[in-house]
## 1
Amino acid sequence: MKNRASTGSARTVEGGIPENQIVWLRRDLRMKDQPALYAAAQAGPVVPVFVLDDDRPRERQYGGAHRWWLHHSLESLSRSYGKRNGSIVLRQGDSVSVLASLADQVGAKAVHANRHYEPWWREAEEDLRDALPDGCELVLHDGNYLLPPGTARTGGGDPYKIYTPFSKAELELFPPRDELPEPETISQPSDMPDSDDLSDWDLLPTEPDWAGGLREFWNVGEAAAWDRLDWWKDHVDDYEDDRNLPSEDGSSKMSPHLHWGEISPISIWHTFKDKRSQGWKTFEKELIWRDYAQNIIMQFPDYPQESYRDYDEQVLWRNPNRGHLIEEDLKAWQQGRTGYPIVDAGMRQLWQTGWMHNRVRMIAASFLIKHLLIDWRHGERWFWDTLVDGDYASNGTNWQWVAGTGVDSNMFPRIMAPLSQSEKFAAEDYIREYVPELADLSDEDIHDPSEDVRPDDYPEMLIGHRQARERALEAYHDSKS
Ligand SMILES: Cc1cc2nc3c(=O)[nH]c(=O)nc-3n(C[C@H](O)[C@H](O)[C@H](O)COP(=O)(O)OP(=O)(O)OC[C@H]3O[C@@H](n4cnc5c(N)ncnc54)[C@H](O)[C@@H]3O)c2cc1C
C-alpha cells in the first residue's frame, strides 16, 4: 500500500487508495474541539499544514509579539502530534499556492479549514477554492467562536451593529454547538511532505532579545491553555468583583490562548455552562464581545483602519502637517512616559509582557485619543505590533469603541479621567510593579504624584487633565461643524 497510517488505521476507498486530507492550520492551533481536524481525521490520513504567509496580510503581517507566541505555539502543537507519532508540515509563502501544490503532491481529496474572518483570509479561502486540483475540495468549518459570525440577526435579517442587542440575541440562540473531542485516531500518510524547520523561520527575537518578560509571564500552547482554564475554575465566580482591578489577578488571561485557537470558546463555555454566578454571566458576555468583534469585521472588513462615523478627521486629530508635534507624544505614550502613572504602568506592562489589563487598555487608549488627540489608528497599530493577543477584529473594534468613531453608541465626548480611574480601581500595586521609580510613594500620592514627591526620573504630565479635556471637546465640536 502506498500510504500507510502512522497512528491507527487509515480509511481507504475502494481499490485501497487512502483519501488524504489536508488540515490548513491558522489561528486554531489545538487538537481538542478542532472541527477541521476532527472532520479530516474521520475521512482519511491527515496532513496538517501551517503556512507562514507574510504576503496575503500585506500591512497586517504578524508583529514581533505575535511571532514570539506563534513560535512557541507551533512548537507545542508539533510536540502533541509527535506524541502520537505524527507531525505537522511547516511551509513559508503564499498560502494558496503552497496548499494547492501540497494538495497535488499528496493527492488530497479535501483541504479542511476553520473559517477565519480577517479579509485577507476570506480572500485566500475564495482563491484556494479555485486553485485546488480537480478532485480536491475546500471544506470550511466553524471552529473559533461561540456562534458562527452572521448567525445572530435582527428581525429584518441583518447582522447586528450594536453590541447590546447582539449579545441578547446570541444568548437567546444559545447553547452553542457541542464540544468535539480530540480525534481518537489521527492517521497520516507514510510519505509526509517535507517540512521547514521552525527555528529557520526566525520568529524569536535575538538582537536584542526583548522577550524575557514574555517568557516569564506566559506558558504557551494547548496544555497551558487548559491549565489556565483549570485555575480559572476557582476564580470565575469572583470575576464580577475583581475584573476591573489591575492590581489583582482578576481576569482569565485566556486572550492569547483564545486568539491563537489553543483552546476554543466552546470548550470554555461548556466548562462553565451550569454555573449560576454573576461572575460567570459577566465572563460569558466578554466571550460574546469576542464574537461581536468578528461580526463587525464580517460586515466592515476595513473597520480596524477606517472610522465608521462621519467626523472631519483632518480637524479632529492633531496633525503633523499642521505643525503638531505628535511624534514625541506618541513615543512618550508607547514608552510609558506620559506622567500619568496608570497609563505608564499599562504601556510598560504591554511592552514587558505583550498583554495589558482590560481596564487599563481602555484608559491608555482613551488617553492617546482624547488627551493627546492622536488618531486612534496609531494606537491600534502599536497594540497590533506589541500584543500577544493582538486580534484584527477585537483590537479594531475596541479602539473604535473607545474613540467613539465606531458603530456602537459610545461617543467621542465621553472622556475618561485617568487619575480618578486609577484611584477608583485601586491601581497602587499595579503601578508599583510596572513603574518601579514610583514604588516608594504612598497609596495617596502614587496615582497623581505632586511635584514635591515626584522622583526626578519620572516625567511631568504631558498635559493636564482639564486642559486636555477642553482641547478634545473643542476639536470634537470643530470636527462636526
Ligand atoms: C483598546 C483595546 C484594545 C484591545 N485589543 C484586543 C486584542 O487585540 N485582542 C483581544 O483579544 N482583546 C482585545 N481587547 C479586549 C480586552 O482588553 C482583552 O480581551 C482582555 O483584556 C484580555 O484579558 P483576559 O483574557 O484576562 O480577559 P477576560 O476578562 O478574562 O475575558 C475573557 C475573554 O473574553 C474576550 N474579551 C474580553 N473583553 C473583550 C473585549 N472588550 N472585546 C473582545 N473580546 C473580549 C477575550 O477573548 C478574553 O480572553 C482590547 C481592549 C481595548 C480597550
## 2
Amino acid sequence: MAARSAHSHAVVYGATCLRPDGWSGAPLRMRDGVIADAESSGAFRIYLRDHLVFPGLINAHDHLHVNAVPPLAATEVFANSYAWIDAFQAHFDDSAVKAALRVPKAVRLRHGGLKNLLAGTTCVAHHDPWHEALDADDFPVALLRDYGWSYALGWPSYGPPVRQSFAQTPADRPWLIHLAEGTDAVAQAELTQLDALGYLAPHSILVHGVGLHEQDIERIIAVGAGVVWCPRSNRRLLGRTLHPRRLADAGRLALGTDSRLSGSRDLLEELRDVADGGELRSTQWLDLVTTDAARLLRMPLRGSLQAGAPADLVIVEDRGGDPIRSLVGIGRAQLRAVVRDGLPRIADPDFAEWFDAAGVETVPVMLDGRPKLLATSLADAEVIALEPGLEQLPIRGVAAVPREACH
Ligand SMILES: [Zn+2]
C-alpha cells in the first residue's frame, strides 16, 4: 500500500497548554508542522480534556551512536573523564562491545534518536562528528545544527582541534566542549585554561563542569556562556556532580542525558533525579530542557509553544496539583503522545484517529509493558532490536488466516 502523504493541520481542544505567557486552555493550532496562531478551516480536531501539553523537550547532550554499547561495570569512581576514557580502552576488547559497535553507525544513530523521542525529547545536541544518517527526513528527532565542537582540552587527538574549531564557529552559533569533567586538579584547572586561551565566550557551552569552582561559575555567568548538566553521568563516572542552583538562577544551565555509555536512560529519568535532588524550583526543572536549553543552544523557536515554532509536543494526563509534576516524575510509557512537526509519532492506542487523519501509518508496539502506536517510519526492526523495553507486536489481521479450509 502506498504511504499517504502526512499532513499536520490539527487543533487540540480542551487541554491546558504551556504557552510562552503561561498555562492556557485556548485551542492549540498546528499547521504545516508549526504552531499556528490563526483559526483555519478543515483542521482535524483532537479533544483532550484533563490533559497537559508541554513543548517537546531538548536534550542538550548526547552521543547518539553509542546508546546501545554496553557500559563499563560501575565499580570504580574516576578522578576525571580522561581516566575513564583510559579504562574504557580495554573494554573495547569485550565481545559484547565489539558486537554492539559492529551494528552500522546509521542504525545506531537512529536508535539514539528513537531513545530520545520515546521520552518526549524532540531535539538533541549530538556531540560527535556529523553523519549523513542525521540528515534523513525521517530521523526520529530534530538536531542542533550549525554548531562548532571539540571533544575536550585534555583529549585533543579526538574531534576537531580546539583552536580551529573555536575560530571557525560564528559568534551566533554555539560552540560545545566537554569541560571540567572530573573532581581532581586537572579538571578544576580547565575553566581557567579555556579562559586564558580566549575560548570562553558567550557562545561557549561547557558540558559537565563538575570541577568548576564557585569563582569559575561566576566567571561563566559574567561572560554569558552556558553549562550542560548531566548529573547521572557525573555521579556514575565521578561520584558527584555540580551544584546547579547558581547557574540555573542565572538561566545558564541546560540538562543533558549524555549517552547510556555513562549517562541516564533518558531525559525523563534525568528530570526525576533533578526533582528528587530538591536543589531547584519546579519551574526551573522544565526550563533546563526547554527555554534555557533553547537560549543556550541558540534555537530561538524551540522549547516553547509559540506561533511559528515547530509543533513539537509532549502530551500527558493532568495529574492535578503543580502541572510540572504531571510530567516530571513519570516514565516514558506514561506519556500520552509525542508529536513532532505537528504529527503524532508515538502515542497511546486511543490516538489512532489522529494518526489516521494525519496520514501517519503506525505499527503496534509495547513500550515498557504498555501498548502504543509508533509511526511506521520509526519502526525499523534493527533499531527496535537495540532498545530495551520496546517491542513490535504482530499487526492484527495479518495472521488471521481462516481455518475452515482445513476441515
Ligand atoms: Zn559527552
